Amino acid sequence: MNKPTLSNESSSIHCASCSLRALCMPCGMTTHEIEQLATLVKDRIRIEKGEYLFRLGQKAEAIYSIRTGSIKTQLDNHQNHKQITGFFLPGEVLGLDALSNDTYLSNAIALEDTEVCVMKNHNLDQISRHVPILQNQIRQLLNSEISRSHQLLLCLGSLKAEQRIATFLLDFSGRFAHLGYSSHEFNLRMNREDIGNFLGLTLETTSRILSKFQKEGFIAIQQKTVRILNRDALKDIVNTAH
Questions:
Q1: Beta-carbon neighbour count of residue 88 at 10 Å?
Q2: Do the beta carbons of residue 92 and residue 65 sit within 8 Å?
Q3: What is the DSSP letter of 103?
Q4: First and final C-alpha spacing in the chain
Q5: How do strand 5-6 and strand 43-47 relate by DSSP bridges?
Q6: Which of 10, 46, 191, 199 has CB 3.0 to 4.6 Å from 164, enough for a Cys bridge?
Q7: What is the reported pLDDT for 11?
Q8: What are the Cyclic nucleotide-binding domain coordinates in residue numbering (predicted)?
Q9: At 46, which helix (H) or strand (E)?
Q10: What is the pLDDT of residue 224?
């Protein structure tokens, strides 16, 4: 399998002109602070679909912000069992959980051809001295990761299968809206097996529930494209748990 490749556009990286500046690390920074950050964050790397950005146990050398594409994180044990722990979209940051461990705590695999911006860990102290607000940004991102993990545990521990699927669809709807895309129609790059694995469901159960939601007019699915037709119905399914 090929290694991630350095983008030949790396010399032209400029955080101030990036369309995702409000979504990832530069969020809330002044123009001057973004200019300083841009002098230290110079690399982008490209990963083809199925390639690893980093592996479980690998020395953590950087954190990564997705510029285009999407990535899944997963754990693997010695019995070749995998557990998907997250799906990441443009503007979201990977590798933060390794800052206190010096090694990555999961595998990160591209769901499609993906490009990420690279911030080397050994530069973080220097960046923080130049851009003090960055420390607060990192804390907020870590808090978001912890919150997402807690929500996943809640979903797996207390929700029924239909509620898990409805929660998943509504979550992605909101995340795409945050990116500035439609909350009613979006592409899910992961397959149904990955969705089921993430939610603690079998492929058969995941497919059956998605088909049921289609028949009842809650959603429409065409290959990778999902359309939300009845958001209130999905919310009602989720709220039956409370």
A1: 22
A2: yes
A3: B
A4: 46
A5: antiparallel
A6: 199
A7: 44
A8: 25-99
A9: strand 43-47
A10: 92
- The share of the chain scoring above pLDDT 90, in percent, equals 49
Q: How many C-beta neighbours within 10 Å does residue 223 have?
A: 7
The residue with greater pLDDT, 46 or 154, is 46
φ and ψ at residue 88, rounded to 5 degrees: -120, 140
Output the CA angle 208-214-215, nearest 5 degrees: 90
Q: With DSSP H G I counted as helix, E B as strand and the rest as coil, what are the percentages for the chain, rounded to 5?
A: 45, 25, 35
For the cut 80, the answer to whether the pLDDT of residue 31 exceeds it is: no
- Which of 55, 52, 57, 53 lies closest to 103, judged by CA? 57
CA dist 117 and 81 (Å) reads: 30
| Structural domains present in the chain | 5-154 (2.60.120.10), 159-239 (1.10.10.10)
Q: If pLDDT is split at 50, 70 and 90, which confidence band does 161 have?
A: very high
Of 32-41, 154-163, 174-183, the poorest mean pLDDT is in 32-41
Instruction: Note if the pTM is more than 0.85.
Output: no
DSSP state of 230: -
Buried/exposed 110-125: b ≥16 CB within 10 Å, e otherwise: bbbebbbbbbeeeebe
Q: How confident is the model at residue 72 (pLDDT cuts 50, 70, 90)?
A: very high
Write the single-letter amino acid at 170. Answer: L
Concatenate the DSSP letters of all residues of 1-24 into one string: -PPPEE-TTGGG--GGG-TTTTTS
Is pLDDT above 50 for 225? yes
- Give the residues across from 82 on adjacent strands: 76
Length, in residues, of the chain: 242
